[in-house]
Amino acid sequence: MFSSHPNAEYQLGLAQKSDAYCQQIAMKLGSNIDNLHIQQIKLSYKYDNGILLHVNNEYGHETIKIVIPFSCRSIVLKSCHDNAGHFDAKKTLEKLKSRFCWRSMRKDTKLYVKGCIVCQKVNRRTTLAYGLLGERSFPQVPFQVVSSDHLSLPPTKSGNCYILANICHATRFLVVTPTCTTATDDIINTVEKDIINQYGPPLTYIIDNGSSFTSAKFHQFLDKYGIEHLLSPPYTPQSNGLIERSVVPKI
User: Fold this and answer.
1) Is the pLDDT of residue 195 over 90?
2) Which of 214, 100, 198 is closest to 148 using CA atoms?
3) CA 226, CA 43: separation in Å to the nearest integer?
4) CATH topology for 145-247?
């Protein structure tokens, strides 16, 4: 890349001399201090024709890479991404790592590829688009629709580490019960004691995709009382927002 221009190596050398990180390496290479860190720097870096290089002697094979100063990184990224077929971040990073070296290469590559206008226009989505969240009908009868969720807390003297929160969609009445675990048996006992025995079985029970809520035993429990089991979509807490925003402010 740099060798294709007559003054490229000279310009790169000037950029390295004005770069803070390259200056630190240069000072350590010229240092007379004898400690493990300085020895490691001298084994890992060297100058060749005024250019700072990174040297890696792994498995007896020497690999030499150019240390890229901050001011030249956008040029290198453009060459290895824009001028090389607009590959994804992983392939662009592999191409960069084969010839160049700088500390934040992985992060910079991801940000550069993510912000590439051409990639955003041309690349097609390979996964299904997210569906729109619909509105639920507002129940008129108390405890007809109930949402539930777990919240972890510091252990109490009784050994309780969690609370199971249930909220009525009609009245916004919140029922909070401390529990020792998030196991299915504890959920069943709590729902049966604090919800069903007190207010009757709800028509709909809305919960997340936790393993305790999706187990066969919990399904059998809901079927026993004829309760509809609704799961909120993964990674979308807003779909069960009533319980999500009601628990934390009240605890």
Assistant:
1) yes
2) 214
3) 72
4) Nucleotidyltransferase; domain 5 (3.30.420)
Tokens at 244, concatenated: 């999500």
Residue 2 burial by Cβ neighbours in a 10 Å radius (0-12, 13-18, 19+)? buried
Which pLDDT tens digit goes with each residue over 61-95?
A: 888 999 999 999 999 999 999 988 889 999 999 99
Using DSSP bridges, classify how beta strands 228-231 and 204-207 pair: parallel, antiparallel or unpaired: parallel
Distances (CA, A) of 18 to 6, 13, 14, 15, 64: 20, 9, 6, 5, 22
Residues 6+ apart with CB under 8 A from 116: 81, 82, 86
Overall fold of domain 6-122: Endonuclease III; domain 1 (1.10.340)
User: Of 246 and 198, which is predicted with more confidence?
Assistant: 198
Cα(191)–Cα(205) distance, integer angstroms: 10
Nearest CA-CA partner of 13 in 50, 41, 47, 57: 50
To the nearest 10°, report the CA torsion of 111, 117, 118, 123.
Answer: 70
Per-residue CA distances from 156 to 30, 124, 161, 163 (Å): 59, 51, 7, 11
pLDDT, mean of residues 124-145? 75
Please state the pTM of the whole predicted model: 0.49
What are the φ and ψ backbone dihedral angles of 62, each rounded to 5 degrees?
A: -85, 125
Nearest CA to 167 among 144, 187, 140, 185? 144
Q: Is 193 helix (H, G, I), strand (E, B) or coil?
A: helix
Closest CA to 222 of 192, 183, 194, 179: 192
* Domain assignments of the chain as residue spans, ordered by start: 6-122, 145-247
